[in-house]
Write a structure and sequence with these properties.
This protein has about 160 residues and is mainly alpha-helical. The chain is about 60% helix and about 10% strand. It contains five helices and three strands. One of its GO terms (molecular function) is S-methyl-5-thioribose-1-phosphate isomerase activity.
């Protein structure tokens, strides 16, 4: 399976969809700003992939926060999320991914900051796995609707 977006050793790697189909080029995003730029410049496309990328970006943003209290941590996280939201303001899955990550942060406010950061990374990976499962399920269902030898045109 080709992974269009994945979390690798502290950064987010995505296929640069502006280069397809002629080239298969990867972009490595090391900061939440890198993820925002990838979304804005359409390196990553498609609502689900944007939502997954946003969640992973929030996790990267959380890792960079040096606050010692939850309130200071969350205030900085909200600032970073607002900048990420502006990368493509009409993308519903972008906002959904960000809001889900912020909710998890609020629900985890009694954890230590390092454990909170780990919890956010886990949530981003859960969102990623949920997206893979949903796509596989759609593919399995769609396979029953298309006869062998049929041609499907997408655009």
């Amino acid at each position: 399976m080709i992974k269009t977006v994945e979390y690798v050793d502290g950064y987010v790697r995505m296929i640069d969809q502006t280069r397809l189909p002629l080239e298969k080029v990867f972009v490595d995003c090391k900061t939440i700003d890198d993820v925002a730029n990838a979304i804005k410049t359409m390196v990553v496309r498609g609502a689900p992939a944007i939502g997954v990328s946003a969640a992973m970006g929030v996790s990267l943003g959380a890792e960079a926060i040096q606050a010692e209290s939850f309130d200071a941590f969350y205030a900085e996280l909200e600032e970073k999320c607002l900048a990420l939201e502006k990368s493509r303001p009409t993308a519903i899955n972008l906002v959904w991914g960000i809001e889900r990550m912020k909710r998890v942060a609020r629900e985890s406010k009694y954890l230590s900051i390092p454990k909170l950061k780990q919890r956010l990374k886990e949530e981003a990976l859960d969102i990623y796995e949920e997206d893979i499962a949903a796509n596989k399920s759609m593919g399995d269902f769609g396979q029953t609707l298309v006869n062998d030898g049929s041609t499907v045109l997408t655009h």
